[in-house]
Amino acid sequence: MKASVLVFPGSNCDRDVAISLEAATDRPPAMVWHGLTEVPESDLIVLPGGFSYGDYLRSGCMAAHSPIMRDVVKKAKAGTPVLGICNGFQMLTETGLLPGVLMRNASLKFICKDVTLKVERNDTIFTNRYGRGKLVTIPIAHADGNYFADDDTLAKLEDEDRVAFRYCAADGSTAPDANPNGSRNNIAGIYDATGKILGLMPHPERLADIELGGTDGNPLFSSLMEALH
Amino acid sequence: MKARIKVTLKDGVLDPQGKAIANALGGLGFEGIEDVRQGKYIEVELAESDPDKARSQVTKMCEELLANMVIENFSFVLETA
């Protein structure tokens, strides 16, 4: 599997995700600087976490309108899988590749902690190595992760089974107090209509090695390796 | 020509920052604060001198970049120097 990780000024999870990808695929991903206009041919494009362009105007907004993103949108629409983590998820909503928007956390605070997530589907290229409905622990670290979409969009996401991960309690219940940031329907990550684009706020690359205290993030990368070789 | 642009949250979109501001105003002793909604104010200097052309230019800027149409509305006034 040949992956490309985009690097924007202010990205800070690009190297972490590169390490996770290399561990899963035995191959270092291409690191692609935002100033280029074309992403090399890849089986997967990764938009990493961080604070691209200092979160100016809206988180992910400036990156979403940078020259390289035109090519990302083009390739995504032609079927190249795209993974957007945290700031990458914000970019995906800003480009319109994923619906909705990530607003300021309801608490107005930057939240950095491990959360429990429910894996809603395990039949996608991103989650085939997880059990369906499995609970995993993965950290979040964001100020703007409060997922909002209007009622119609939300109903469509639920009807089409496009919620990838949901914040939940240790028993798997999606009670409001298991919701760290105010996201509608406890949404932590969603797919596009084809299931080939995933955006999620939690950071699987930050808990993908025993040295980091856990490996619940690993199956996401090995799932991609399994599906895309 | 200058465009004075206001970007505000749509009705029905929760505004936790507005709520925090309302609480802070209450804490300072201002009474009768019923609601606060906050937004952004942006000024853009344009070379364009034709108001109609400027209007359509600024509308496009708002739709494509300055506002996120999922949650925000925009309005603007044009000012000749």
Total of domains of chain B: 1
Largest sheet of chain A: 9 strands, mixed
Q: Can you count the helices of chain B?
A: 2
Order of helices and strands of chain A: EHEEHHEHEEEEHEEEH
What is the CATH first-level class name of chain B?
Alpha Beta
**Backbone shape of chain A:** globular
Largest interface (CB < 8 Å): A-B, 20 and 11 residues
**SS-based class of chain A:** alpha/beta
Mean pLDDT of chain B: 95
Q: What is the percent of helical residues of chain A?
A: 10-25%
CATH topology of chain B: Mth169, Chain: A
Report Rg of chain B: 16 Å
Mean pLDDT of chain A: 96
Low confidence ranges of chain A: none
User: Which fold name is given in CATH as the topology of chain A?
Assistant: Rossmann fold
Report the count of strand segments of chain B: 3
From the spread of the alpha carbons, the general shape of chain B counts as elongated
> Major sheet of chain B: order of its strands?
2-1-3
Task: Give structural notes.
The complex is a heterodimer of chains A (229) and B (81). Chain A is an alpha/beta fold and 229 residues long. Chain A has a single domain (3-228), classed as 3-Layer(aba) Sandwich (Rossmann fold). Chain A has helices at 14-25, 61-64, 67-77, 87-95, 151-159, 218-228; strands at residues 3-7, 30-33, 44-47, 82-85, 101-103, 111-119, 135-142, 146-148, 163-167, 187-191, 197-200. Chain A has a nine-stranded mixed β-sheet, with helices on both faces. The model of chain A has no long low-confidence stretch (mean pLDDT 96). Chain B has 81 residues and is α+β, with helices and mostly antiparallel strands. Chain B has a single domain, classed as 2-Layer Sandwich (Mth169, Chain: A). Chain B has helices at 16-27, 51-66, and strands at 2-9, 39-45, 72-79. In chain B, strands 2-1-3 form a three-stranded antiparallel β-sheet, with helices on one face. The mean pLDDT of chain B is 95. Classes of the chains: A alpha/beta (229), B alpha+beta (81). The A-B interface holds A 57-58, 61, 65, 93-94, 99-101, 103-108, 146, 148-150, 182 and B 13-14, 16-17, 20, 64-66, 68, 70-71.
